[in-house]
Amino acid sequence: MKKNMGKILAGLIAIVVLAVIFLRGDQLEELARTVQHGSPFLLFAAIAAELVRYLTQALAFTWCFRAVDAQMPFKENVKLVFKTFFIDTVVPSLNMSGTSVVIATARRHGITDGRATGAALLRQLSISIGFLIVMIAGFAVIGFTGQLKAGWLILGIAAVALIAIMTGAMALAAAKPDWLLKLVHPIERIVDKVLVHFKRKPIDAWVSNMVDTYAESAKLMIGNKGDIVRELAYSTVGSLFEMLCFGLVGVAFGITNIEALVCGYIVATLFAMFSVVPQGVGVVEGASLVSFTLFGISQASAMAVIMVYRAIVFWLPFLAGAILMQRSKVSNKR
Question: Average pLDDT in the 136-147 region?
């Protein structure tokens, strides 16, 4: 527990430091002046759109559990949306850290670890697929106008490849788990050598257990294809509302260029997915600023949109997750 708290504290410090580095005093002053001119009505609408997104994510969680023949109360799923976001942020691990929170919550409701892990993995996968559907449609719109940049396209292709690998791993685990173990064995050996060098335990047992979990979960999901379709639909709708949130924030500050708003949302989300820093703090803001600049949008307006949007989709759920995690710790002590 102490080790986990150390990781969480280190993550929090890293996020705060990155935010301070990114925002200099002069930028904060300019940002404050620009924000004052934003439309309060549209900003509240943006917050409402993001709240709808969180509800759709909670509904997606519901169907994730049903896909592995388990039931989780909707109220708990709402909490899990924020808790997993918080843990995945402060303990970066390709959004896998939140799985431990899902398992702990599931145990209290009599759900086995294997099924809980399967539900968590399915949710992560479907969130990514839902975004990819929106991203491909958005890139099609930008490409039609002739403003699609090669760098953005390459990043999008990388995202598709990563999700394809994850989907393929689950499919292979269901059909041929032994084959999957053979495929990951070379990587496993390399990681083991590095861990031995630092006097850590090899990951052989962990990999074998993870593949078994994939296999158990995937076999359950095969018989619940309808639940997976519903869950994926909710995840896609969630991404659409997140893009709507971005668009409303943009319009609130006078940006009405549809291509710029679509591109800004896709770039922000892609860099959050691939960044090596927690949730891409600093990196996302910088990349989004560049994308807006390419469309001829002023730096002050672009900065206002990016920072307000990130406050809604990153800092608010992050703080909500931190509060819920703290309340859970207090409840468990009782």
Answer: 81
